[in-house]
């Protein structure tokens, strides 16, 4: 566990440092060549730096043991931070779209396309490298997955920058040079407009965790398969399964309603069932908070007692 946490912190630090480098490079270069698209890329990276630092601080805070104040753990902080991260990105995308529309309506923007193309090549290569590093380790935590998503967006933004300015360079050798001022704001509009949906999707997913709603179908199906198998082998007629995913932790509660024919008799039998559940769900790479109860009266499994 501690090795995993160390790896998480190391990956988040790499993300912060590289994002900071490209943020400064993008803002400075965007101003020098008068490119709104490069400036947006730099501002996105700058926002990523601040949000990555927030993720790093919260990830370190979560791993500190404090069961007295947080008896169920601090994993709820993870989706809350993710909501904040993507809310800021959403605002950035909306403001950028509005700015791009204003530029298009005012006749475009003159840009030094040759120098902008150089930046696009360097930036795209760097973003691809960091994205693949994080994406390879995204299952370790929600923070790393969020970082990978951010770098995926940044990679595609950088790719769009590269495509846009490569197109502008080609146009500069044709009789359509008058279109060059429109390339930069048009690409900004396409890129920022497209990526508005990414933070919306991620905010919705994080809100589901904050509200402790059911997790992805794959997780629920996996546990249902295990529970059904136990019911068959131990002659249990009915059970109630509840699962909620919060950050990198699964809260699983299973109530088995026994009958006279059930093969669960002793405490040892109950512990054996618990061990089977854990062993058969090892493929789900989450921390698990497992509560398994056994009762002869279904009323005690309803959980809504007066």
Automatic annotation (TrEMBL):
Upper taxonomic lineage: Bacteria, Bacillati, Bacillota, Bacilli, Bacillales
Membrane spanning stretches: 12-30, 42-62, 83-101, 113-134, 155-173, 179-196
Protein's membrane topology: Multi-pass membrane protein
Family according to the record: Belongs to the cation diffusion facilitator (CDF) transporter (TC 2.A.4) family.
Highest taxon of source: Bacteria
Coiled-coil blocks: none
Keywords tagged on the record: Membrane, Transmembrane, Transmembrane helix, Transport
NCBIfam families, per database record: CDF (TIGR01297)
Pfam families per UniProt: Cation_efflux
Protein name per the record: Cation diffusion facilitator family transporter
Compartments in which it is found: Membrane
